[in-house]
Design brief:
alpha/beta; Urease, subunit C, domain 1; TIM Barrel; nine-stranded mixed sheet
């Protein structure tokens, strides 16, 4: 196992600046940064490339156990590696759902056997597993579905929700859609089978009501809260009003500011269906501005793959979700090349901030002593996203046919190269992330 290497001549994105310098790695950790360091291990000439801390995707659904025909921890982690993602946080809405310590231990064992990148997991909340939520060891947080989505995890009773917030100290991450609003809209729209009604079924009111309720409990009990996949201008405006010293963070998915209604539904049909839904340009622009302003803290993908055959069913039968872990960094690098944001911002949103929000040990920055989770990117490389040429098991993308400029070319996990020249080394194994 080679975990010693020296990277020469890269433009290294450090926490406060970008500098042409060298980085050396021993035993899977960064041991030196500078222009006078000696060679150790394998020497990589990275002239013309940028070296970033490995991307962290803090929300994926790798479908194992229970639906590994769509994705499993191996195929999903290979897709992550190809996208420059060196660590992921996986959701608990599996079959069976991960709601006990025993099931969590089983999932961690599967990841140890299969994952080519680093991994962490959310514990799923139910109305009656509070003891398990608070006793489970080394998880990134508790996941609460306030509105129904994929799987059968749902906590929609405000009294039960408050009980979870009031008892314990672990971070709570919420899928913020109000179930009562969803059900009322479903009754109103029950005779319509056009996918373009999806953002009406799961409208702005459903999102804002749930977000406000979760924030109220977070402030009341001083409980650390993370709001998953924000989608509305309404929520952004509300979050701007919060007191400065709150314990609330949030994220946005690239698809929610790059794919807009109604065009996405007209072009992609049910491939564009996800929860919460893709919305109009007004919301997309507000999300991007909130990210730039620091109201939204980080980027996640909500990578939620389904097969093309499953997605090809009529609206109402087609499942919600789309893949994204393999293309998120390239989408953002393309924005850097178009001068919409800076590379330093991308590194903050996709590496440093997620590591900080979830108190990940040794992740998120290029610094001496940090884990050697790194990605070399070619900012001049142009590639077209193409169905059938992806690592994800479902092998399709909503960005099929889109040319992006700026791609990862080498991904390094704990000092080991896991992705190079378009190929994944499937023998590499990542490690369980440690959470403070």
């Amino acid at each position: 196992m080679k975990t010693a290497l020296t990277i020469r001549n890269a433009e290294v994105v450090l926490p406060v600046r970008t500098e042409r310098t060298d980085v050396s790695v021993i035993n899977g950790r960064i041991c030196a940064i500078g222009n006078e360091i000696p060679d150790v291990g394998e020497v990589i000439d990275a002239d013309g490339l940028f070296l970033l801390p490995g991307i962290i995707d803090p929300q994926v659904h790798f479908r194992e156990p229970g639906a590994d025909h769509k994705e499993d921890l191996h195929s999903g982690s290979c897709a992550a590696a190809a996208g420059g993602v060196t660590s992921f946080l996986d959701m608990p809405n599996n079959t069976p759902p991960v709601i006990t310590r025993q099931r969590m231990q089983g999932k961690k064992q599967l990841a140890a056997e299969k994952s080519v990148v680093n991994y962490g997991f959310f514990m799923g909340a139910t109305p009656d597993n509070l003891e398990e939520l608070n006793a489970v060891e080394n998880v990134c947080g508790i996941k609460i579905f306030m509105g129904s989505s994929t799987g059968d995890l749902l906590v929609d009773d405000p009294d039960v929700l408050e009980k979870i917030f009031a008892n314990g100290s672990r971070l709570i991450a919420v899928h913020a859609e109000d179930e009562s609003v969803l059900q009322a809209n479903k009754a109103l729209l029950k005779d319509i089978s056009d996918v373009r009604i999806h953002p009406l079924l799961r409208n702005e009111s459903a999102a804002l009501r749930a977000t406000k309720l979760a924030v109220r409990f977070s402030l009341k009990y001083r409980r650390r809260l993370h709001i998953l996949h924000l989608t509305t201008e309404d929520e952004c405006d509300f979050l701007r009003t919060l007191p400065r010293e709150h314990r609330i963070s949030t994220e946005v998915c690239p698809q929610h500011f790059t794919l807009t209604a109604p065009e996405c539904y007209e072009q992609l049909g049910t491939l564009a269906q996800m929860n919460p839904p893709l919305r109009t340009k007004r919301h997309a622009d507000a999300l991007w501005q909130a990210l730039k302003d620091g109201i939204i803290d980080c980027i996640a993908t909500d990578h939620a793959p389904h097969t093309l055959a499953e997605k090809d069913q009529p609206y109402g039968k087609a499942p919600a979700g789309m893949p994204g872990v393999e293309t998120s960094l390239a989408l953002m690098l393309d924005r850097v090349n178009r001068n919409v944001c800076t590379l330093q911002e991308v590194v903050y949103w996709m590496s440093e901030s997620p590591a900080k929000l979830y108190a990940m040990q040794g992740k998120g920055r290029i610094e001496v002593g940090q884990d050697a989770d790194l990605v070399l990117v070619d900012m001049s490389l142009k590639k077209t996203v193409t169905n059938g040429e992806l690592q994800t098991r479902v092998n399709w993308s909503p960005y099929h046919g889109m040319e992006l400029k700026g791609w990862p070319v080498q991904t390094i996990v704990n000092g080991q190269t896991v992705f190079l020249n378009g190929e994944v080394d499937k023998s590499v194994r990542g490690r369980e992330i440690s959470f403070a």
